[in-house]
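Objective 1b of the project was to move from sequence-level analysis to a structural picture of ligand recognition. The entry below was assembled by the postdoctoral researcher (A.K.) and checked by the PI before modelling. It contains the amino acid sequence of the target and the SMILES of the bound compound, pyridoxal-5'-phosphate.
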Amino acid sequence: MTSSAYPSPSSTTQQCEIDFRSDTFTAPTQGMRRAMAEAAVGDDVYGEDPTVNALEDYASALLNKEAALFVPSGTMSNLIALLTHCQRGDEVIIGDQYHVYCHEAGGASTLGGIVMQPLPTTPTGGLSAQQVMAAIRPADFHFARSRLVSLENTVNGVIQPQAVIDDICQRAKAQQLNTHLDGARLMHAAVASQVPVASLVQHVDSVSLCLSKGLGAPVGSVLAGSADFIARARSYRKMLGGGMRQAGIIAAAGLYALEHQVTRLDEDHTLARYLSEQLSAIESLPFDSSRVSTNMLFIDFPKHGDQHLSEYLLAQGINIGDSAAQCRLVVHLNINREIIDRTVALIKKYYA
Ligand SMILES: *Cc1c(COP(=O)(O)O)cnc(C)c1O
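Corresponding predicted holo structure:
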């Protein structure tokens, strides 16, 4: 599971109705559209949009943090977090397959002068506390100052062991380092583990949550942390051009997602497990079901160039994410059992 797992926009760009490439392909539900249409709005740059304020209050309560900030994207949310935690020349310790390190266009380094120290993660996305502690630079003018540990959960759909996350956070704190969690799909981890999401972020200083992934909102993320942290983050949001005006129209979708579309993630996980069982039963398909813990599945292609599988499926109106080495299937609210049965039948036929 390398960075190649991420679908490149050029690989399969054709839009079709059945799209397994990502849970970002969800369309707003009827209830969500209604909430957007009826949202009370104001100018959020002045802090006067009631729906944005309601979303930020809801998110901070949900995550049990003092404050939250509505931002246009997960990428901006993580960038704001890093800019708020770090000064120019400070260093962030991070996993080498984490989104902040490899899929955010190097923003923190380019715009913030922040140094990244990537550590090798396990195939399931993990870092150990020992690894992180050993990476902290000594107080010596030869080194950049280690300032932040940036973690991620889920990583490619895999729930990270909470005891390890908590341990890393506590040991980082003892060394005067802050911690940030990229929780783009953290709600998937909470629902699948049947624990309150706040318990997953108890020890992190800041957390970013995507509303536009499996939760089904068309746009937006929230960043949460202490009141002081969010007050400073607000100024970076403005600096980056993320201050929006009557943003209640889109915040309403995010609020609706958090209120009504979290518990249904269970259905996605059940369907992902079902799909995983079906794929495991195809003898000639090298499929590793042990990696499936939420809504993502990966098929590693055998050497003989099986990426034609995605072309074959696309011709049948089914879009899956692929790279040279593997393809990724993501289950979300626009995927149902019937679609999965049809897809499995086609994959079986392809490998027959
Ligand atoms: C999608 C994603 C992001 C960034 O979110 P965007 O809204 O696409 O900018 C950050 N981290 C992870 C793990 C993601 O999957």
